[in-house]
Amino acid sequence: MLLALDTSAGSSVAVIDGDLVLSELSTEDTMRHAEVIGELIAGALGEAGVDGSRIRTVVSGMGPGPFTGLRVGIAAARAFAWGVGAELLPATSHDAVAFGEWEAGFHGPLLVVTDARRRELYWSSYDVAESGIARTDGPALCKPDEVPYPDFERVDATQVSAGALGRHAWAERQRGVVEEFGEPLYLRAPDVTVPGARKRVS
């Protein structure tokens, strides 16, 4: 049994058994990740009729995404996995969007774009074949007028499905492809800075 979480664009939580999504709850609210993530986890587990102790794997969306929102989802995934003794798998959030397009029957070059705020966009490019998806470039950050690959089919995603994220990550694991749990894909430095030395007051 698997729990997937993504807060790179809104918040989404899904409970998955093998290839079947038992429940998925999402919100496009990009300002209240910390307030809603606990409710979404509890709601998804309740809707699926699954006790948290039955979760053996937790998939965490690693972005790209804005700093604060993305941190909330990753922290929640880490805490839940630690609490129930589950393994923790990372997953690139844009992969879930491309996976969803592949499941819908799309084949060809694909560009996934999400809002990075500050008048910037995140993007990733994919080769979507009959056999599955392969990321060919990105994730990266750019201005709206600098988005590459204008000839690719473009998907501007306002949300990342935790169901698609978890199913794709599990399918990749079954093929022996497992990402290391590295740094989140913020793709820009946080606003906070280390304060300088205090000025002497004479």
From TrEMBL:
Name the UniProt record assigns to this protein: tRNA (Adenosine(37)-N6)-threonylcarbamoyltransferase complex dimerization subunit type 1 TsaB
Domain of life: Bacteria
UniProt xrefs under InterPro entries: ATPase_NBD (IPR043129), Gcp-like_dom (IPR000905), T6A_TsaB (IPR022496)
Domain Gcp-like stretches: 32-149
